Amino acid sequence: MSVSQPAIENAQLKLLEKLCNACAVSGDEGEVRKIVLEEVKPFADEVKVDALGNVLVTRLGGGKNHPRVMLDAHMDEVGFILVSDEGDGLYRFETVGGIDARHLVGKPVLVGKDHLPGVIGSKPIHLASTDELKRKPSLDSLRIDLGPSGKAKPGEWATFATKFRRVGPSIMSKAIDDRIGVATLIELLKHAPSNIDLLAAFTVQEEVGLRGARVAGYAFEPNLAIAIDSTPAHDLPTYDGAENTVYNTKLGAGPAIYVYNRATIDDPRLVRFLQETAEAAGIPYQIRQPGGGGTDAGAIQRTRGGVPVVSVSVPHRYTHSPISISRVDDWKHTLQLLQVAVQSITSNLLLEKR
Ligand SMILES: [Zn+2]
């Protein structure tokens, strides 16, 4: 096949770093959208920013009657929104998306368009009662402290302040979920094959209920869709020496193919197709353990008359916390699997038995 093959080298890691360090809480995806638009324009037949802020990119295969294949990655990340100004640089806040309050205490944050540095403070250990030390802090008891010179307004967004790092085989960032999907989708667009019409959706507001994907799926009207995301790996050893059997996914075991979660039952033909593609190409993969969670696929599959969907994720540890960890090799294998898969999609795929 004459398609140039994507790879993950320094340039791709630099782009991922830029995407991860951008601040783009659900509803405020502008910083990531700007980077995406710069990257995709030279490779697109059409680029649209829709009413919600999704970036919808079409790259036609050339010729007629190609399957319309939608690939999706969400631009937003979990974070915070300021609720009220209590004076002296102190702000009450709410979480945006699923964040466990245990992750918040003592963490540096960046607030607003100017990325003002702040901290989520807590009571010092010297003054906390035994009971307080045992309990999970309530959101009500926490404040973002910008200091007296830090001026912000209710309604402004904030993110964890962690900077992207590359450490040996690992990458660490606040926003691997889902900038790693965004970077993957950019690479796939740059090397799009001619056997499909590639419909790339860089979506908004996934973390607050798959909202952008719903309208993106409706607009694209695809024959099938693949959501590219990042999923928890709870693969640490247990402390009592028992076997860890509920890990969701494991780092280093390759892309995670979904079968079932709270938002989607993945199309069995697409699950089988991805597994067979990986096996034929010698690419490692794992099945994400069926259970909770969800991806944009859950919204896309329920647009119009229904869309066959599947999700593929790069695993990461420490989901929706100030810092997650992934392996570069898992990212490489995810990109490889998706590239080989999109190159092999034909309209016959959906004529197969379920
Ligand atoms: Zn995600």
Sequence-ordered SSE layout with sheet pairings:
Layout: H1 10-21, H2 30-40, E1 46-49, E2 55-59, E3 68-74, E4 79-85, E5 90-96, E6 108-111, E7 116-120, H3 130-134, E8 144-145, E9 157-160, E10 165-167, E11 170-173, H4 176-190, E12 197-203, H5 211-220, E13 224-232, E14 256-257, H6 268-281, E15 286-287, H7 297-300, E16 309-316, E17 324-327, H8 328-344
Helix pairs in contact: 1-4, 4-8, 6-8
Structure notes:
The chain is α+β, with helices and mostly antiparallel strands. It is 25% helix and 24% strand. The chain is built from eight helices and 17 strands. The protein has helices at 10-21, 30-40, 130-134, 176-190, 211-220, 268-281, 297-300, 328-344, and strands at 46-49, 55-59, 68-74, 79-85, 90-96, 108-111, 116-120, 144-145, 157-160, 165-167, 170-173, 197-203, 224-232, 256-257, 286-287, 309-316, 324-327. The two termini are 29 Å apart. The chain binds zinc ion (ZN). Zinc ion binds next to helix 4 and strand 13. Zinc ion (ZN) binds at residues 74, 177-178, 206, 229-230.
**Order of helix and strand elements from N to C terminus:** HHEEEEEEEHEEEEHEHEEHEHEEH
Low-confidence segments, given as residue ranges, are: none
The N- to C-terminal Cα distance equals: 29 Å
Helix content: 10-25%
**Range of strand content:** 15-25%
Using only C-alpha atoms, the radius of gyration works out to 21 Å
Describe the largest sheet.
8 strands, mixed
Class by alpha and beta content: alpha+beta
Sum up the overall morphology in one term: globular
Strand order within the widest beta sheet: 1-2-12-3-13-16-14-15
